[in-house]
Each structure stands twice: as structure tokens, then as C-alpha cells.
């Protein structure tokens, strides 16, 4: 009977969900900043809002799938040489990233649902998406909309800062520490890491 070991690499499903989310989030940041600040014509702005809402709800769906997958599939362990404080920092950063990947779509959805213009959301021009039933719950709809807008925008900047950290940490692991942390999230084969006992997992 062999000792239980954690996987060396992320599963293909986890890898696909990770990179699809990354692509979606980058698109959302680009579209979001452009539609909110570039002084577009109302028609162009409307189109970008529809794209933003469609990709944003998709990222919410991907995040729910990631949570579900993670419930049953343990991620690979941290490298054995990684100091405890770095393990904690990595787990905290990943926790915040997940929080924002849920919080940003929900606050964006709340903004749209509270807007006095009551603009329907039709995902990718195909699927009609409902508003959250918030209007009946808040005493001051305009104030609630303004608060959610503020939280959504600040949350987006926090996400951008965390993404910079996340990418910098991945590059440090790859080019300076020369371990497997980035490679095991890549879709190709060829991990050089040694499996570690389940107990040392994050
Ligand atoms: C991970 C998901 C998301 C990210 C990273 C994101 C990012 C952004 C960014 C960067 C902005 C510009 C903020 C500013 O500087 O004013 C923005 C604005 C906005 N987003 Fe999102 N967004 C996400 C999801 C969503 C979703 C799902 C919806 C709606 C269903 C949505 C609706 C909006 C709206 C209505 C605005 C404009 C708010 C305003 O007028 O100030 N977002 N978003």
C-alpha cells in the first residue's frame, strides 16, 4: 500500500477554468474602464455595457464551477521549500481573489438591477438575464445604486492590484525560485516537481 500523495499538477478542468477566468477578467477590466471613462457615444457605450455584463456573468459562472470543482479536487501542495509566511500570504491572496471574483459580478449585477433606466441584460445578445430583486428591498434605490457602483469600482481596482501581485509571484516562482508553481498551472505536460504528502497541502 503506497502513501497518499497530492497531485503534482492541477487537473485539466482546473487549468481550463483558471485561464478562461483570467481571460474573462482581463477583458472585463479593459471593457469596464473603457465604457466608464473613455467618453464614448451612447450607442458604443451601450454595446460595451452589454459585453461587460455578458462576460461578467460568465466569470461568475466560471467561479461557481471552480468552487464546486475545488470541493472535490485538492490542488497540488505548495513547494516543500516555501516558508510558512509565504504559504499564508499565498492562501490569503487567493482567498481575496476568489472573494472579488464573486463580489464584483454580484455588485455589478446589483448596479444594473437598481438602475432607474431598467435596461434589460441579454447575455451575448441571446439569453435574457433577470435583474436581482433589490429594488423592492432598499428604501433609497438611487443611494443603493450609488453605493454598489462605488464598491464595484473600488473592488475592480483592488482586483487589479491583486492581479499584479499574483502575476509577479508566479513569475518569481518560475524565474527566480525556479520551482514548478507556474508550470503546473500550464496546459502542457512535463512537471518536474516531486509529489508531497497531503499534509503539506494549502
Ligand atoms: C469579475 C467581474 C468584473 C470585473 C473585473 C469588472 C470590472 C469593472 C471595471 C474595471 C469597471 C469600471 C469601474 C470604474 O472605474 O468606474 C466596471 C464598471 C461596471 N461594471 Fe463591472 N466588472 C465585473 C463584473 C460585472 C458584472 C457581472 C456586471 C453586471 C451584470 C457589471 C456591471 C458593471 C457596470 C454597470 C459598470 C459601470 C458602473 C458605473 O457606471 O460606474 N460588472 N466593471
TrEMBL record:
Q: Which family does it belong to?
A: Belongs to the cytochrome b561 family.
Q: Enumerate the spans annotated as Cytochrome b561 bacterial/Ni-hydrogenase domain.
A: 9-187
Q: What is its main location?
A: membrane
Q: Which GO terms describe its biological process?
A: respiratory electron transport chain
Q: Which GO terms describe its molecular function?
A: electron transfer activity; heme binding; metal ion binding
Give the UniProt subcellular location, in the record's own words.
Cell membrane
Q: Per the record, GO CC terms?
A: plasma membrane
Q: What organism does the record attribute this protein to?
A: Methylobacterium brachythecii
Q: What is this protein called?
A: Cytochrome b561
The membrane-topology field of this record reads: Multi-pass membrane protein
The UniProt keyword set, sorted, is: Cell membrane, Electron transport, Heme, Iron, Membrane, Metal-binding, Transmembrane, Transmembrane helix, Transport
Q: What residue ranges are annotated as transmembrane? A: 12-35, 55-72, 93-112, 154-175
Question: According to its UniProt record, which cofactors does this protein need?
Answer: heme b
Database matches in Pfam families: Ni_hydr_CYTB
Q: Return the InterPro entries for the record.
A: Cyt_b561_bac/Ni-Hgenase (IPR011577), Cytochrome_b561_oxidase (IPR052168), Di-haem_cyt_TM (IPR016174)
